[in-house]
Amino acid sequence: MWKTRKDEEPPYNPPKEVSPVATPTERRPFEQEREAPARTSGMAHIGKSVLIKGELSGNEDLYIDGEVQGTVELRDHNLTVGPNGRVQANINAREITVQGKVQGNVRAADKIEIRKSGSVVGDIITARITIEDGAYFKGSIDIQRPDAAKTEARRPETAAAGPSMAATATATERKLP
Amino acid sequence: MTLLHDSLRKLFRPGGAESHVAATVPAEATRRSNGLREFCRELKGQDGLRILDLGAASQANVGFFTELGHKIYTEDVFPALNGSGYRAREESGAWRFDSDAFLAENLNYQMLLFDAVLCWDVLDQFDEAGLRPVVARLHRIVKPGGVLLSFFHTADPGAAVPVYRYRIQDAETLELIPRGQMTLRRPLNNRNIENLFKEFHSLKFFLARDNLREVLVIR
Q1: Distance CA A10, CA B72 (A)
Q2: What is the 3-state secondary structure (H, E, C) of B183-206?
Q3: How far is B128 from chain A (nearest CA, A)?
């Protein structure tokens, strides 16, 4: 009576390949995670789940979207603190862009830019500065423009095997709450 | 039909068709400032001065003073005042502004003295309990002979007055960008202000048409 209707069975559809779904990270109370831009090639990247304590130095550009405590030394290179970045360190770089939070003294040989989502608490020494409306800044600004003589006398960059980033630090990877 | 019904319902609702509350956010404005002009005149002929700006961080203000060869400090106290972090409970149970806690974290320059301070309308945002300790702190951090510019609203107490970001366009022109509102706590006439700054050397008043009293104070 209840004969199986084999001839009417729906065609077999093998399961489609399912692309992995990223586990959503927990949001901090009262804070929204902001989308960080795609990685730029040739730039070292500290992701938002990474915490570094200690001295961070290197001879390539650096993008920090995690947490750094200590010092950041990138004398001839650029630093970007991403929207989720939290840096409690003294910083020395050529150009610095702040979209997250920085607490510490900042020296930018060329320029520093504090975006509207950025916050800097500390003293700044730089040749040029840009502060977007909405940015938070507490500290002093000392404009020091390089002399022409100093520019000519700049020593040539030493040849290196490639860009490198050194961290005399304790690097831990943990999910930020 | 539903749309027509809703429209008719709104039309005959108490208050009329437009019963919504009108927006009270003031527009951006430019104003001439005699107080700023005199402030800049006091700095003329000098370079390397230390200037403290108690308003929002502003590209224009930073550029204005650094182009003149000065070093500028910025401390925006508005967010601190509008948070709930500086309240203390009195014995009666009422909350009051905790000026000690505020001054422990703000305007706290132990080894530094300033040649000039731009208070803008910050002092109007303190209540009676907070105002005098803050002015006393300003007296401590301004050098003798230093100059301070402050704005006071002349509206009635309890009135809602706008709070601005003050952006310097030139030595006598300000651009005002609204950033919120505050309730004016108490009236301050010239005599009140003189009494408030009694430890300072001298004061000069400038009253503008927009009911903002500008006061230049010499330490």
Answers
A1: 76
A2: ECCCCCCHHHHHHHCCCCCEEEEE
A3: 26
Number of Cβ within 10 Å of residue B115's Cβ equals: 20
Q: Which domain holds residue A96?
A: 41-147
Q: What is the pLDDT of residues A94-134, one digit of tens each?
A: 999 999 999 999 999 999 999 999 999 999 999 999 999 88
Tell me, yes or no, whether A50 lies in a domain: yes
Q: What is the mean pLDDT of residues A76-105?
A: 97
> Does some domain include residue A174?
no
Question: Domain for residue A2, yes or no?
Answer: no
What fold, for B24-218? Rossmann fold (3.40.50)
Question: Is the Cβ of A140 closer than 8 Å to some Cβ of chain B?
Answer: yes
Q: Scanning every residue of chain B, which has its alpha carbon at the shortest distance from the alpha carbon of A141?
A: B72
The helix (run of H) or strand (run of E) holding residue B163 is: strand B160-170
Nearest to A141 among B72, B79, B177 (CB): B72
Interface of A with B in 119-138 (CB under 8 A): 129-133, 135-138
Residue type, B71: K
Q: Under an 8 A CB cutoff, do B165 and A130 touch? A: no
Which chain B residues are closer than 8 Å to A141 by Cβ? 62, 66, 71-74
Give the C-alpha separation, B48 to B52, whole Å.
13
Contact A121, A139 (CB under 8 A): yes
Please give the ipTM for the structure prediction: 0.80
Contacts of B50 in chain A (CB under 8 A): 140
Mean pLDDT in order along chain B per 10 residues (219 residues): 46 39 59 94 93 94 94 91 74 79 88 94 86 94 96 85 91 91 80 92 88 91
A-B CB pairs within 8 A amount to: 38
- SS3 (DSSP) at A173: strand
Kindly determine whether residue B59 and residue A131, on different chains, have CB atoms separated by under 8 Å: yes
pLDDT at B9 (0 to 100): 46
Residue of B nearest to A113 (CA): B59
Residue A165 domain flag: no
- On chain B, the residues whose CB falls within 8 A of the CB of A114 are 57
The number of CA neighbours under 13 Å toward the Cβ of B64 is 22
Which pTM was predicted? 0.76
